[in-house]
């Protein structure tokens, strides 16, 4: 079997993998990147902001059950990550608030992806597209590369000093989603690249890696029920980010969560409700201020209600609360009961139950904009356990020699909470690259 020797093998050419590979070649290391699909960039192609919690206090407040070492590393090294992006000549805009509690920078993710590829190639790195990683190679309990089937069908052994898993999570595997997120997760529409199907997790577990945390949730957003994504632009266009200013009722005609904490958190809660669907109600004020407004400073505004309606979602406009009685019966809600609750909530203000911590304004201005919503899945929070350098851990909590992971393949950082997907891919991609080849001098060249 033909073989290749390299300092660093990176499996997955998305945000984490390309970051790691570009960093390693910048340090004079030889790198081989193996990508499963015919294109690079993964879900990072669709992202626009690198952001996270601005301080340890905020991280602790919004993500109290995440791994403390990973949380700390993410906050501490985020600024270095932004400096790294800028060092490649990619502009990062000034900091803006993201999702109420985060801080981040808009940047050209596709420009960054292209620049990483250019640097990898210019430094003699190899990028194998449409390649399948069959197994990791091991020796004395450590990882020494991988067996890969190239696009030509040829199998080859890539022997490496270190290997970084960066395949982007398991959201494209209904089986793994059902097992680790929630049984109902198998039904969610995929709001990400289609190739992240848990290969990194399976490869890591086959060599003794620990994974976790089960039921720690996922990143995703509410979308209109019954509307299929037609293309990747729909991932953002159909996301009902404004739900944090609206009210969400389940099939029992009850609110079940504090919607104001954020659409991405409400999304996790809705998954666990009956049939994973609910009625999202906004009034004329919310429509004006939030449905047709911009979600994050710098992002384009789009009338999501209008789009949901045009695309055949379950939508309706009620001129006043009395008209809720005429909700289509086949939707399964009791409109009059929901209208009564809206009246009661408007009267309760900040004392609403569940509370509406960050926006307790009344929804008392007709007309009302009603959309039935369900969760869509971007990536899971369950994954390969790592230390703060990206080193993969076994069940005893020891690192597995030669094996690293970064980005959405990893778990433990978030537990029913979220402070960005690009930021951990960036921070732990850099950390893994630095640690993976730290003990290697002088650089070894490709054979
Ligand atoms: C619509 C959308 C908008 C988003 N916006 C933001 C945002 O503004 N800010 C933010 O922080 N996050 C955002 N995210 C999330 C962010 O894109 C991800 O968290 C980030 O890209 C994760 O990086 P990654 O390298 O782990 O995975 P990815 O970037 O998805 O890359 C994984 C790569 O691995 C490849 N792969 C899979 N299996 C294999 C295999 N067996 N062998 C080789 N390669 C494999 C995939 O094809 C892919 O190229 C968004 C996501 C989506 C879908």
Report how far the terminal alpha carbons are from each other.
14 Å
* CATH class call of the largest domain: Alpha Beta
Total domain modules: 2
| Largest sheet data | 8 strands, mixed
How would you state the average pLDDT, rounded? 95
CATH architecture identity of the largest domain: 3-Layer(bba) Sandwich
Shape: elongated
Task: List cofactors, ions and other ligands.
Answer: flavin-adenine dinucleotide
Share of residues in helices: 25-40%
Query: How large is the count of helical segments?
Result: 12
- What is the alpha-carbon Rg in Å? 23 Å
CATH homologous superfamily identity of the largest domain: FAD/NAD(P)-binding domain
Catalogue the unreliable spans. Answer: none
CATH topology of the largest domain: FAD/NAD(P)-binding domain
Number of strands: 20
Into which percentage range does the β-strand content fall?
15-25%
**Which secondary-structure class do the elements indicate?**
alpha/beta
Structural write-up:
InterPro entries: FAD-dep_OxRdtase_2_FAD-bd, FAD-oxidoreductase_2, FAD/NAD-bd_sf, Succ_DH/fumarate_Rdtase_cat_sf. Residues 7-421 form the FAD-dependent oxidoreductase 2 FAD-binding domain. Its cofactor is FAD. Keywords: FAD, Flavoprotein, Oxidoreductase. By secondary structure, the protein is α/β, with parallel strands linked by helices. Helix content is 28%, strand content 24%. It has 2 domains: 3-214 and 381-436, FAD/NAD(P)-binding domain; 220-377, Succinate dehydrogenase/fumarate reductase flavoprotein, catalytic domain (Flavocytochrome C3, Chain A, domain 1, Alpha-Beta Complex). It has helices at 15-26, 56-62, 68-87, 109-122, 174-180, 199-206, 234-237, 263-271, 284-291, 304-310, 335-348, 422-436; strands spanning 3-11, 31-34, 49-52, 96-98, 102-106, 126-128, 132-139, 142-149, 155-165, 189-190, 211-212, 218-224, 247-249, 278-282, 315-318, 368-380, 383-385, 391-393, 399-405, 410-411. The strands form 4 sheets. Strands 1, 2, 6, 7, 8, 9, 18 and 19 form an 8-stranded mixed beta sheet that branches. Strands 10, 12, 13, 14, 15 and 16 form a 6-stranded mixed beta sheet that branches. The longest helix is centred in the first third of the chain and has 20 residues, at 68-87. It is elongated. The two termini are 14 Å apart. Bound molecules: flavin-adenine dinucleotide.
């Amino acid at each position: 079997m033909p073989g290749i020797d390299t300092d660093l093998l990176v499996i997955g050419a998305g945000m984490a993998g390309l970051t790691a590979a570009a960093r390693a070649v910048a340090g004079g290391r030889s790198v081989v990147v193996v990508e499963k699909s015919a294109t690079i960039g993964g879900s990072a192609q669709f992202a626009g902001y690198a952001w996270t919690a601005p301080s340890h206090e905020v991280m602790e407040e919004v993500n109290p059950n995440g791994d403390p070492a990973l949380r700390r590393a993410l906050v501490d090294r985020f600024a270095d990550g932004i400096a790294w992006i800028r060092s490649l000549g990619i502009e990062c805009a000034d900091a803006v608030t993201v999702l109420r509690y985060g801080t981040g920078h808009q940047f050209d993710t596709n420009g960054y992806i292209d620049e990483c590829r250019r640097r990898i190639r210019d430094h003699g790195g190899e990028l194998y597209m449409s390649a399948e990683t069959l197994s990791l190679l091991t020796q004395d309990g450590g990882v020494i590369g991988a067996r890969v089937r190239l696009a030509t069908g040829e199998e080859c052994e890539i022997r490496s000093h270190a290997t970084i898993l960066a395949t982007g999570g398991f959201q494209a595997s209904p089986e793994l989603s059902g097992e680790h997120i929630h049984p109902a997760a198998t039904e969610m529409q995929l709001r990400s690249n289609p190739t992240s199907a848990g290969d990194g997790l399976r490869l890591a577990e086959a060599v003794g890696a620990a994974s976790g945390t089960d039921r720690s949730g996922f990143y995703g957003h509410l979308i209109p029920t019954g509307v299929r994504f037609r293309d990747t632009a729909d991932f953002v266009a159909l996301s009902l980010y404004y739900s944090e200013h609206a009210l969400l009722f389940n099939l029992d005609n009850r609110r079940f969560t504090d919607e104001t904490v954020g659409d991405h958190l409400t999304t996790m809660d809705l998954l666990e409700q009956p049939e994973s669907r609910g009625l999202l109600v906004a009034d004329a004020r919310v429509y004006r201020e939030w449905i047709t407004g911009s979600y994050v400073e710098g992002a384009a505004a789009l009338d999501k209600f209008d789009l949901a309606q045009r695309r055949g979602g379950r939508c309706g406009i009620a001129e006043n609360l009395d008209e809720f009685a005429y909700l289509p019966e086949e939707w399964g809600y009791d409109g009059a009961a929901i209208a009564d609750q809206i009246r009661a909530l408007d009267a309760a203000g900040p004392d609403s139950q569940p509370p509406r911590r960050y926006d307790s304004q009344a929804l008392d201005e007709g007309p009302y904009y009603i959309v039935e919503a369900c969760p869509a899945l971007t990536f899971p929070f369950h994954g390969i356990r790592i230390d703060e350098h990206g080193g993969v851990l076994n069940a005893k909590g020891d690192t597995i020699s030669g094996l690293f992971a970064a980005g959405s393949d990893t778990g433990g950082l978030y537990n029913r909470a979220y402070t960005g997907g690009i930021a951990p891919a960036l921070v732990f991609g850099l950390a893994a690259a630095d640690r993976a080849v730290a003990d290697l001098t002088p650089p070894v060249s490709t054979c």
